[in-house]
Amino acid sequence: MPLLPTTLESCARSVPSPSDDSLSARQSMTTLTDNSHPSHPAFVHFPITFTAITGGLDAIYYASKLPATSSLVNSVFKSLDKAIQPQAFPVLSYYSTILTILTTLPAVVTGVIQLSPVIQRDGFQSKKAKVGAVHALINDIALFATIYNWWTRSQQVGFTPSSTNVFVSSALAFPLTMYSAYLGGSLVYEYGMGFSRGNPKKTQ
């Protein structure tokens, strides 16, 4: 009989503490709830696509009007025997500009929602927060540039882009958007943005 309490005490010591396990589980579930299935990646592809379309259409249209390149562009389209000619591109690029703005807005909002906890936690001390802030700033610049193009072109007959509009869409907004997309990929694959578990170094 004296051995029974000792045996029970030994068994009790061998059982893991339920409080520690439950705390760890709750922390894991909280992390997964906070970081799983971020909505931002679902929205970013649309503004990237429409920005590229707008920049390409404007660049081709502008090239079709320049004396140095007009004959080449027109001969290419003539050889392709396509119904759509560069003369129709201003209308197409104007509406793709509108689509760029409309699809950028939810991408910006969801990006802010995803980045805010990182900045609140780290300030701007971590590389992850710094890259995220630059990523957001570049997107904002591209958005305002696109809004400028939409507003100025809406006043023109046929929505014809000026040389400034072409520069903004092809040489400013498009490269900025591509670089921002590169930074967005770095946030995911280098710094683990949106992942609840992984290499601890990615969170720095």
TrEMBL record:
Residues 16-36 have a biased composition (Polar residues). Residues 37-195 form the DUF2231 domain. It holds the Pfam family DUF2231. The chain crosses the membrane at residues 94-119, 131-151, 171-192. Residues 1-36 are annotated as: Disordered. Keywords: Membrane, Transmembrane, Transmembrane helix. The keyword Ligase does not apply. The keyword Membrane applies. It comes from the Eukaryota. This is DUF2231 domain-containing protein. It comes from Ascochyta lentis.
